[in-house]
Structures are given as structure tokens and as C-alpha cells.
Design a protein that fits this description.
Blueprint (H helix, E strand, L loop, with lengths): L3 H5 L3 H4 L4 H10 L5 E5 L12 E6 L2 H5 L8 E3 L12 E7 L8 H11 E10 L1 H4 L4 H4 L1 H8 L5 H8 L2 E5 L2 E2 L20 H5 L11 H13 L1 H5 L8 E2 L3 E7 L13
Length: about 260
């Protein structure tokens, strides 16, 4: 079971750590659910420590970086979750759906296994498309826009959704694509870029990096995006989606826990 992160995920745990403000929003979204399946779990970020959690992750490289004491993990894919119907109160997925080869099947599997709700953190590119990073790296927008489902596609798969905006703090600790919106120099660091999967898909970016670095040094970046400097958080389209999945027929439940 070879995945993209088996190739690029070696230093993931050093750059991709839970941000406490995002963690609080996710914890609130799964509130009241005592058993949680974390799909595409990676190294274990945002797994609520106060709940019973089981993780599913396809990459052995990512599994190896899960810390001591993390939730038990099963190597597997969202498209074929190895659990009976209604096994967990909630299914959680954090910035993972865009990596699934068959998104519709993966979402159907999440709904099948969830007894109460499915909670997903994703990105709405109708909002994210205005991110300044794409002015320098338009290839990033082209690479990601077609793999992130829009909200309508999630609704088609899961039904009615509650949508919660997740503004990204200026000092975000988690190194995903939008984390450094107020710290442009971070994108010049190859270690930072290596923890953002989209950079691995767009080839050589030396000329774009040179332009960004020049604009930072000259002050052109600061002048161009001055409106950002006074902000402590920014809406870049990151959204928590909550899909209620009530299964009222108790005879059909096959609970594991």
C-alpha cells in the first residue's frame, strides 16, 4: 500500500503539529461522541485525547511517526474501512479527503461506519482562491483546486451539512498550505515546503521562490499585502463540515466498542 506520504512524509511530524485553536474547534465538532474513528489520521494531530479513538492511515511512514501513547492505528484506506456498520459514534477526517483516490466511495464508507456524525476539515477553494500565495505559485491553485471537493459535492455524498469557518491564526503551529499567510519567508524553507503535499506535485519552483524572496527583501510583499499585517487570523476557506448520520434502527448496529 504505497502512498504519496511514503515518499514525502519523512519529516512530517516536525512541521505538522496540532494548533490549539484549530484543535478546540475540532473538539467542539465531535462533542458528545465517545468513540471516534480518525480516517487518514497521519501522525495523530487533532485526535481528542479525552475520547476513545482508533486511527486509519495508509502510509507506513506516517504511522511510524505517531507518538508514544497515540491512538491505536490500522493501516488502511478510507475507501475500504475495515469496520462494521455504525462502529463509531463519529468519524473524523482532517485535511484528508483530497488525497483519496475515490472520494465518493470514501465518504460513503465514513457515513456507513459513523453512528452519529461525520466531521471533516477541508478547504473551500471558492474562498481560498484569493490567497496571495497563488499570486506567486499559481500552479498550487491548479493542482489543489480540482482535488478538493466543493461543498456541494460533500452535500451530495453526505446530505445536509453544518459548516463552520476555521480562521487560520497568524502564528498557526500546523504547517499546512495556508498556515504561513502572515509569515511569507517560511515558504522559502524547503523543510516547510516538504510538509505541504501540493509542492511535491508542481515541479521546479526556483523562479517563483526567487521572486517571492526578492519581494520580501525589497518590501514589495509587505506593501502589496499591507491589509494582512494588522490581522491576527484570516479566513482562507478552511471549513469544518458536520454531517449528522443518525442510525435509528438499533438492530442494525454492530458496535465494536
Amino acid at each position: 500500500m504505497t502512498t504519496l506520504y511514503d515518499k514525502i512524509g519523512g519529516g512530517y511530524s516536525g512541521q505538522r503539529q496540532s494548533d490549539p485553536r484549530i484543535a478546540a474547534a475540532i473538539k467542539g465538532a465531535v462533542g458528545g461522541c465517545d468513540s471516534i474513528l480518525n480516517v487518514g489520521a497521519g501522525t495523530g494531530s487533532y485526535e481528542p485525547a479525552s475520547r476513545f479513538v482508533v486511527a486509519v492511515e495508509p502510509s507506513r511512514v506516517m504511522i511510524a511517526q505517531r507518538p508514544v501513547g497515540a491512538a491505536p492505528v490500522v493501516q488502511g484506506r478510507a475507501e475500504a474501512l475495515p469496520f462494521p456498520d455504525c462502529s463509531f459514534e463519529a468519524v473524523l477526517g482532517i485535511l484528508t479527503v483530497h488525497h483519496w483516490k475515490d472520494q465518493a466511495r470514501g465518504l460513503a464508507e465514513c457515513a456507513r461506519v459513523a453512528r452519529t456524525k461525520v466531521v471533516l476539515l477541508t478547504n473551500d477553494f471558492d474562498v481560498c482562491a484569493n490567497f496571495w500565495l497563488f499570486d506567486y505559485f499559481p500552479e498550487l491553485l491548479r493542482a489543489d483546486r480540482h482535488i478538493f471537493p466543493n461543498i456541494a459535492r460533500f452535500e451530495d455524498a453526505l446530505g445536509s451539512l453544518e459548516t463552520i469557518a476555521v480562521p487560520i491564526p497568524a502564528d498557526c503551529r500546523d504547517g499546512f498550505l495556508g498556515a504561513y499567510w502572515k509569515r511569507p519567508s517560511a515558504y522559502l524553507d524547503p523543510i516547510v515546503r516538504e510538509s505541504i503535499s501540493t509542492f511535491s506535485k508542481i515541479g521546479n519552483v526556483d523562479s517563483q521562490l526567487a521572486r517571492l524572496e526578492s519581494d520580501i527583501v525589497s518590501g514589495a510583499w509587505e506593501q502589496r499585502y499591507q491589509r494582512l499585517l494588522g490581522l491576527e487570523a484570516l479566513d482562507l476557506g478552511y471549513r469544518i463540515l458536520i454531517s449528522a448520520q443518525p442510525h435509528t434502527n438499533s438492530d442494525s448496529r454492530q458496535e465494536l466498542f
